[in-house]
Design brief:
The complex is a heterodimer of chains A (196) and B (161). Chain A has 196 residues and is an alpha+beta fold. Helices cover 29% and strands 28% of the residues of chain A. In chain A, strands 7-6-5-10-11 form a five-stranded mixed beta sheet. Chain B is an alpha/beta fold and 161 residues long. In chain B, the strands form three sheets. A five-stranded mixed beta sheet of chain B has the order 5-4-3-8-9. Chain B has a two-stranded antiparallel sheet with strand order 1-2. Classes of the chains: A alpha+beta (196), B alpha/beta (161). The interface between A and B is medium-sized, with 24 and 26 residues.
């Protein structure tokens, strides 16, 4: 489809993926796929979404939590899953003091699990006082950050891609999303520490 | 349609310990005497404090009545179920089976909306306990409100066997 690159048309494609292709006759055209928002990135404001801590009655609004603070948030596909349990969460628990010495006020772990499961997982890893285990029970935060990953096959539901980020006064400064959503590379604590 | 006494158990897969380890519930129950306990959620206070622990500690009594296996199911993934079982010292006494996507719960007709208490938008399982012989339900106790601990507790089911 040939597109007349006027500002009126271009304004409609601002939030879409735009590519430049060539027709067989050598004519250039701009093609537009349906709008796909990009996952969270540096400069984004955190959405005002409630997460849950310890019980369904205990709400924590993530935008309020991060206001005027330096906060690390990391997300995992599932509480008690092997990668999250052996490596990801323990790394942040053991690096707590290092993060604190770099001026971090809080470390938060988010997963699409209910708050009872998150609390139990945190307890198993001695997270208390170091990493706050916040339940994204219905995936609202994950969805708002465009970080959903379909893990209905292995886990039965849509979950969160593995990520880590530094947030200052509610704005994302650094975001590391695992390329495949579940790997254990750029989102690990030592990697984020080196970025601070 | 809700499961009742005389019905055959549905032919559905659950998972044990990992997503790779499938267990077909009707195959498991074939030719055996089986107790199945359903709960709204792993690690929830009510399910964890007394409800499932009672079935674990009553294992010997069930065995003496000829029961071959005791299963606990919940709409949670297999890693969560395995961790919960370990936390409760379920060991060899109660098998923790994950109904990750709620297929078994739905097939039993025992889904419940726990948005008020758990905050979950997707259904969980009503609290129930049952006794099945060769895959056919012989005794069934479903909590009238879906979550209290009354008719479905181990002590009551045991007394009915």
């Amino acid at each position: 489809m040939a597109v007349n690159p006027t500002s009126k048309i271009l304004s409609k494609v601002v939030n879409s993926r735009v590519g430049l292709n060539f027709l067989a006759n050598g004519r250039k055209y701009i093609h537009v796929t349906s709008a796909v928002t990009m996952p969270v990135k540096s400069g984004d404001k955190l959405p005002s979404v409630d997460l849950y801590e310890n019980s369904p009655a205990s709400k924590v609004n993530i935008a309020e939590l991060t206001a005027r603070k330096k906060v690390i948030i990391f997300g995992v596909p599932g509480a008690f899953t092997p990668g999250c349990s052996k490596t990801h969460l323990p790394g942040y628990v053991s690096d707590f003091d290092k993060f604190k010495s770099k001026g971090v006020d809080e470390i938060v772990c988010v997963s699409v699990n209910d708050p009872f499961v998150m609390a139990a997982w945190g307890k198993e890893h001695s997270a208390d006082g170091k990493v706050r285990m916040l339940a994204d029970t219905n995936g609202a935060f994950t969805k708002a950050m465009d970080l959903e990953k379909d893990l209905t096959g292995p886990l039965g539901s849509i979950r969160c891609q593995r990520f880590s980020m530094l947030v200052e006064d509610g704005v994302v400064k650094t975001a590391n999303v695992e390329p495949d959503g579940t790997g254990l590379t750029c989102s690990l604590s030592n990697s984020l520490l080196s970025q601070l | 349609m809700t499961i009742k006494c005389g019905d055959k158990l549905p032919n559905v897969y659950l998972h044990e310990n990992t997503p790779d380890s499938k267990v077909n519930i009707s195959e498991l129950a074939a030719g055996k005497k089986v107790i199945i306990v359903g709960v709204p959620g792993a690690f929830t206070p009510c399910c964890s404090k007394d409800y499932v622990p009672d079935f674990i500690s009553d294992c010997g009594k069930y065995k003496s009545k000829g029961v071959d296996e005791i299963l606990c199911i919940s709409v949670n993934d297999p890693y969560v179920m395995a961790a919960w079982g370990k936390d409760l010292n379920a060991g060899e006494k109660v098998r923790m089976l994950a109904d990750g996507n709620g297929a078994f719960t739905k097939a039993l007709g025992l889904e419940k909306d726990f948005a008020d208490t758990l905050g979950t938008s997707s259904s969980r399982c009503k609290r129930f306990s049952m006794y099945a012989e060769d895959g056919v339900v012989k005794k069934l106790f479903v909590e009238p409100d879906g979550h209290s601990v009354t008719c479905s507790k181990s002590e009551n089911l045991l007394s009915q066997l």
